[in-house]
Amino acid sequence: MKVEIEESKLQTAYANACDGVKDFMESLFGKKVFEAAKPTLDDYKTIRTYEDACKALGEPIFEDPNNLPNHIIALMKLETISRALWGRNFQPKPDGEGSKVYWYPWFALWTKKEVEDMNPEQRGALLSANAGLGANAGFGCLHALYRSSSAYAHVGFRLCQETEEKAKYFGQQFIELWAEYLKFNFTVGNRLK
């Protein structure tokens, strides 16, 4: 019988295994297979968990002595992960001239087909979060208007990445943490039809 295992899945299993299981896996597959599995700031794909990000950055794992809300803890973890994904030499800085592009994981709650199949009332509910201006993001969208100045903060800069590929990885690899951060005061569950 022949069993094939994707190297990335093997490395993920290794990263989450206890020491005894790691020893067993190293004896079975060889140590070289798992050297790339160690979290490093030189390869963002080695950051697969919050704990990996802490190891790569040399920071302690956050312990919550104050019993903070879950969405705040999730945001703190995402910020740590984002810094680790930036890597060793990248320092993002806001650019007042707008010449730099940064990428943010973007989440859709519905597919294009599902939106097209909605009746007008259902589709209107999607736009009501920012009536008259379109649907920006809904979650964590700050909008100050009709004062002495206007300010928009559609996405959190600390959670942006310098490439589209990294932003996609950030959103997909850490989807559960993103859901915890974004859900705030609503329940994530089965959708209604």
Walk me through the structure:
- The protein has 193 residues and is mostly helical.
- It has two domains: 1-37, no CATH class; 40-183, no CATH class.
- The protein has nine helices and two strands.
- It has a two-stranded antiparallel ribbon with strand order 1-2.
- Helix 4 (50-57) packs across helix 5 and helix 5 packs across helix 9 (175-183).
- Residues 128-144 have low confidence and may be disordered.
Low-confidence stretches: 128-144
How many domains, as an integer? Answer: 2
Strand sequence of the main sheet, in spatial order? 1-2
Order of helices and strands: HHHHHHHEEHH
* Cα shape: globular
- The amount of beta strand, in percent, is under 5%
N→C terminal distance = 45 Å
Mean pLDDT: 78
Residues in helix, %: 40-55%
Structural class: mainly alpha
> How many individual helices?
9
Q: If you compute it from the alpha carbons, what radius of gyration comes out, rounded to the nearest whole angstrom? A: 20 Å
Sketch the major β-sheet: 2 strands, antiparallel
Task: Give a short summary of the structure.
The chain has helices at 7-16, 19-29, 32-35, 50-57, 70-86, 112-116, 120-127, 164-173, 175-183; strands at 142-144, 151-153. The chain has 193 residues and is mainly alpha-helical.
Features:
193 residues; mainly alpha; 2 domains; two-stranded antiparallel sheet; 9 helices; 2 strands; globular
